[in-house]
Structures are given as structure tokens and as C-alpha cells.
Design goal:
Elements: H1 2-23, E1 29-39, E2 45-56, E3 75-80, E4 86-92, E5 97-103, E6 109-115, E7 118-127, E8 133-139, E9 146-153
Antiparallel strand pairs: 1-2, 1-7, 3-4, 3-8, 5-6, 8-9
Length: 157
């Protein structure tokens, strides 16, 4: 009887050790993606990939107010798995629209909105281990309509 109890306890502890080894996850990773967006003469936009940097780390909790929705012209960054299923998305304010503050002649601050034809932009994302590609789409007036600007494959990370 004692032999059965001892062997059960010994087996249980070995099983827990094996489970703990299997449950260790890879450290969280961040990806930094750099792009350049350009407005074409026909008012379409093109995005060019510049580079990516992958490192270990975790993002701080983001504000929820602008993450869920965006305005027409804003960009949506979507992480996709190997089957093309959406895992996560983030909204990016239109990088071609810059708000500039300046000092008026009467020493008060003024603000003007300037629309650029070309601008660099960067993304900092918590990368899901299942992510195989990232697409960037432009949000249009119709919520159902999104125009894909670029797809970045992450097979090499």
C-alpha cells in the first residue's frame, strides 16, 4: 500500500514538471515596422515598406478611445494568421494629415491642418505568435469598404 502511494506521488510530481516545461511560452515580442505613404495624382495612396525590427518586450496598455474606430482616410493595421484570419487590428491616424501649432502675432497659439503628399510612419505592435502577415488598409466612407495598401509577410521572424 505504501509502495502504491509513493509511486503515485512520484509520478504526479514528474507529470507536473513535464507540464510546466510544455507550458513555458516564448517571451512576448514587439515588432517595429517603418513605412512611407504617398498620395498619388489620382488621389489613391501607396505604401512602401522600409524595414522591420523585432525584439522581446511587451507594450503598455493602450488607450481604448481611438483603437476601435477610425475616420475615413485613417489606416487599419491587421495581423493575420497563416489562414488569413484576423487576429488583432489597430487604427492609425492618417499620416498624411499633420496638425501644426504656431504662435500668432498676438502671442497666442494657432493651429492649422496641413495635408502632405508623402510621409513616413511607424508602427509598434505586440506581435501575436500566430501572426504570419500584416496588412495595412485604408478606411473609406463605407465601413464595409477597405482598400488594401500593402501586405507585409513575417515568415522570416
Amino acid at each position: 500500500m505504501i509502495l502504491i502511494a509513493v509511486s503515485t506521488i512520484a509520478c504526479a510530481s514528474k507529470q507536473n514538471a513535464i507540464l510546466n516545461v510544455n507550458n513555458t511560452s516564448f517571451p512576448p515580442r514587439l515588432i517595429f515596422l517603418n513605412y512611407v505613404i504617398k498620395k498619388n495624382s489620382d488621389d489613391t495612396k501607396t505604401v512602401q515598406f522600409v524595414n522591420k525590427i523585432v525584439t522581446e518586450g511587451k507594450l503598455k496598455k493602450q488607450s481604448e478611445e481611438y483603437i476601435k474606430t477610425g475616420a475615413p482616410g485613417d489606416l487599419k493595421c491587421i495581423q493575420l494568421d497563416k489562414n488569413g484570419n484576423k487576429l488583432h487590428y489597430t487604427i492609425i491616424k492618417n499620416p498624411l494629415i499633420k496638425s501644426i501649432e504656431y504662435l500668432n502675432d498676438d502671442k497666442s497659439f494657432g493651429r492649422k491642418i496641413e495635408e502632405l503628399n508623402r510621409a513616413p510612419f511607424s508602427l509598434r505592435l505586440q506581435i501575436d505568435p500566430r501572426t504570419k502577415s500584416i496588412i495595412i488598409t485604408e478606411i473609406s466612407l463605407s465601413e464595409k469598404e477597405e482598400h488594401t495598401l500593402i501586405t507585409t509577410n513575417l515568415d522570416s521572424i
